[in-house]
TrEMBL record:
Enzyme class name: ligase
Keyword Translocase: no
UniProt catalytic activity: (E)-4-coumarate + ATP + CoA = (E)-4-coumaroyl-CoA + AMP + diphosphate
AMP-dependent synthetase/ligase domain segment(s): 20-408
Record-stated family: Belongs to the ATP-dependent AMP-binding enzyme family.
Entry's Gene Ontology molecular function annotations: 4-coumarate-CoA ligase activity; trans-cinnamate-CoA ligase activity
Keyword annotations from UniProtKB, A to Z: Ligase
Protein name per Swiss-Prot or TrEMBL: 4-coumarate--CoA ligase
Coiled coil: none
Limits of the AMP-binding enzyme C-terminal domain: 458-533
Organism from which the protein derives: Spirodela intermedia (Intermediate duckweed)
Enzyme Commission identifier(s): 6.2.1.12
Domain of life: Eukaryota
């Protein structure tokens, strides 16, 4: 329009770094991080992040370099969400359940130049370095140990996190993004060892999703946020940045258990938290003695707001959560959508519904959050929207500013995911008359266990590696704690003899523990179509008919 211009006065690239900068000034003395007896204000947190950025620059990190981390929900993990991008780097958070083999593949694929490792995972990290050196003479990334006690000297020749911060420049000049679509983080969709998919997030997308996460989670000003969501998972569903936007206090939780959750609520007056349905199940089925600890909370009588995602929680779990004073909001999304992309926004008229009907409505995936342009259920071939009849299934698709930039080093997969101008999820759903969507199946047969995606193809490949296995197919079996776990249907070679426990142990020696089957069923034949494809829907029915399993934690 005539008379308008775009300049530094009216345009600055969006980045969540600005959340930290604001909170460090406006709310300088408010608590930002609480980790047992360690506490940091927002002024102190900003100073530590600035020193971290300086330390990375001193190590030779330049714009666009990948910096990786393997850590629990501890202060260093949170600080890296700001310190790495403040140095112009791209943060790559690794799943703490990965084994050395998976880590070696992902470190190589990401090209990480520095690897921050929380001390409990040092052995796994060193194992990944050994595998990398055996496969490639190129040096592994520079190791920085996050020590419990900095003077312990966990690994000879390695650097130590707190020591790096002490020696860094406190007046480092932030490397702001040149463009708001510059990458801020790299998140791997699974622990695949064949074709890893690294999802690239931008500064703009992270900024917008952080604000959306605050809104869909009903996060107030100065919240007390309990870190039950792993920060390695979609950057904590982008709440690592969202909490900073609201100048909240992050309560670090190193081990997720009902006792630890209730204790944190009692001690800190937690207002918000999140977690996969497994976390809700842990809370709902915890001993009454642990539940009573909440009664000593400073915020007794106040609701703790919880956002859950993944497989819908059972109605019984929702009922119990409400009884215990938790308000549950259901969200749904992918790594490719920065975590939660939809929210089942509650409507006042649903309050009058019977309890069971309320639960059925609450577990729907709902509609897009305010920072996403659209979510639709479409015929994947014609790209036409399916009728809003609650019966016709189609593929869930997304469009908007909080959709990934693409898959790192995989343009072909990126183009395939964006075919037709929408992000294709591979998930099947229906749309109800009110527009809300509800998932019905997963076209790619992905198993969601404890909030983590498990590729059945990878598990089947591990099973096929056993000499006694002729054919194998893996589906999800309902599980009381994890939501679902891998269930393997196996046909043995003629004359072969092997037990279920041996096959499970065999898989655990080749896969991260959470990916290995928890159940093995031996069959004479696998059900197949006329073209020889395994009918997994038949096997899923059989797995469900077996009932809900009770996995050991």
């Amino acid at each position: 329009m005539d008379g308008t211009i775009r300049c530094s006065a009216n345009y600055v690239p969006l980045t969540p770094i600005s959340f930290l900068e604001r909170s460090a000034v406006v709310h300088a003395d408010r608590p930002a991080l609480v980790d047992g007896s360690r506490r940091f204000t927002w002024r102190e947190t900003r100073g530590r992040c600035l020193r971290l950025a300086s330390a990375l620059a001193q190590l030779g990190i330049i714009r666009g370099d990948v910096v990786s981390v393997l850590a629990r929900n501890i202060p260093a993990m949170y600080e890296l969400h700001f310190g790495a991008p403040m140095a112009g780097a791209v943060l790559c958070t690794m799943n703490t359940r990965h084994d050395s083999a998976t880590l070696s593949v992902l470190l190589k694929h990401s090209g990480a130049r520095v690897f921050f490792v929380d001390h409990p995972f040092l052995e796994v990290a060193m194992g990944s370095f050994k595998l990398m050196s055996e496969a490639n003479p190129a040096p592994p990334p520079l190791l920085v140990v996050i020590s419990e006690f900095p003077s312990a000297g966990d690994s000879p020749g390695s650097l130590e996190y707190e020591d790096l911060l002490r020696r860094a420049n406190p007046n480092f000049e932030i490397r702001w993004p040149a463009e708001e679509c510059d990458p801020i983080s790299l998140n791997y969709t699974s622990g695949t060892t064949s074709s890893p998919k690294g999802v690239v997030y931008s500064h703009r997308g992270a900024y917008l999703k952080a604000i959306a996460a605050v809104l869909l989670s009903n996060v107030p000003a100065a919240p007390v946020y309990l870190w039950t969501v792993p920060m390695f998972h979609c950057n904590g569903w982008c709440m690592a940045w969202g909490v900073a936007a609201q100048a909240g206090a992050s309560i670090c939780l190193r081990q997720v258990s009902a006792g630890a959750i209730f204790a944190a609520i009692a001690e800190h007056g937690v207002t918000n938290m999140g977690g996969a349905p497994t976390v809700l199940n842990t809370i709902a089925n915890s001993p009454e003695a642990e539940q009573r600890r909440r009664n000593r909370a400073p915020a007794t009588g106040k609701v703790v707001r919880v956002v859950t995602g993944g497989a819908p929680p059972p109605a019984e779990v929702l009922f119990k959560m409400e009884e215990l004073g938790f308000e549950v909001t259901h969200s749904y999304g992918l790594t490719e959508t920065y975590g939660g992309a939809t929210v089942c926004a509650w409507k006042a008229e649903w309050d009058a519904l019977p309890a069971l009907e309320r639960a059925r409505v609450k577990v729907r995936q709902g509609l897009q959050h305010v920072a996403l342009e659209a979510v639709d259920v479409k015929d994947p071939t014609t790209m036409e929207s399916v009728p809003a009849d609650g019966r016709t299934m189609g593929e869930v698709m997304f469009r908007g500013n909080t959709v990934m930039s693409g898959y790192y080093k995989d343009g072909g997969a990126t183009r395939q995911a964006f075919a037709g101008g929408w992000l294709r999820s591979g998930d099947l759903a229906v749309r109800h008359s009110d527009g809300y969507i509800e998932l019905k199946d997963r076209s790619k047969d992905i198993i969601i266990s404890g909030g983590e995606n498990i590729s059945t193809i990878e598990v089947e490949a591990a099973l096929y590696g056993h000499a006694a296995v002729l054919e194998a197919a893996v589906v999800g079996r309902p599980d009381e704690h994890w939501g679902e776990t891998p269930c393997a249907f196996v046909k043995l070679r003629e004359g072969a003899r092997v037990g279920a426990d041996e096959l499970i142990a065999f898989c655990r020696s080749r896969l991260p523990r959470y990916m290995a089957p928890r159940t093995v069923v031996f069959v004479e034949e696998l059900p197949k179509t006329s073209t020889g494809k395994t009918q997994k829907f038949v096997l899923r029915d059989k797995a469900r008919a077996m009932g809900t399993s009770r996995s050991k934690l």
